[in-house]
Amino acid sequence: MPGPLDHLAGVPGRVTGFPEWDGHPVREELARRLGLPVVLDKDTNAAALGLAVRPAAPSSFAYVHLGTGLGAGLVLGGAPLRGDRTGAGELGHQTVQLDGPACGCGGRGCLEVLCLAAVARGDGAEAARILGAGAANVVRLLDIDEVLLGGRLVLAAPEVFAGGVREVLAGLGLTAPVRVAGDRDAVAEGAAWLVLAPLFGGGSAPRSA
After folding, report:
1. Which of 13, 71, 125, 162 registers the highest number of CB atoms within 10 A of its CB?
2. Is the peptide bond before 177 cis (omega within 30 degrees of 0)?
């Protein structure tokens, strides 16, 4: 599901657009209803894992996902980077405008609220430019090999977003390639790998109940 969430506790935080999920024991409730073990992780982390196990995948990349919200799945050294509290990859909640509009996370001027506002205005080029600023921050911070784009809004205008992000990175002298890599089933395929990876020695799934 969208983040932020705690993958070890199986509990979401203040999810964009769904504040009622904050603190709800999603994993435990699903396990009880289904009578099966349940793994809970962010959609971006799942998609990144699915991309990481594909042949010829780069060893380090950011999967940047723009849909209901804006987030990223990070892969370093071939393994997903979640952080102890699943806080890694909360790309949308970088503050890029100190006195900007309020965001649902409690901050102001977050990348997510600015990008989604541009999308709502129908200004895809501006949304891509804002997304590029966030991608550039990740490239500079982690020195990753590649930026992979996905999510409903990106897939609706792939050339606009890929071109816009490339332009921002090139203007800053950053050479990381940018491509659209998240197909419509990327999150579902990655979610399957959350279960399958430990069976094949990948050890990439979070611990579950």
Report:
1. 71
2. no
* CA–CA–CA angle 13, 152, 208 (5° rounding): 40
- Separation between Cα atoms, residue 2 and residue 13, nearest integer Å: 9
Extract the runs of DSSP E, i.e. beta strands, from 7-164: 11-12, 61-66, 70-76, 79-81, 146-150
What is the C-alpha separation between 150 and 158, in angstroms, rounded?
Answer: 8
Cβ distance 161 to 127 under 8 Å? yes
**The pair of three-digit structure tokens given for residue 67, joined into one six-digit string:** 């849909």
Cβ atoms of residues 105 and 14 within 8 Å: yes
pLDDT in tens, the chain (209 residues): 888 889 889 999 888 778 889 999 999 999 999 999 899 999 999 999 999 988 888 999 999 999 989 999 999 998 889 887 778 888 999 999 999 999 988 899 999 999 999 999 999 999 999 999 999 999 999 999 999 999 999 999 999 999 999 999 999 999 999 999 878 888 899 999 988 877 765 555 554 43
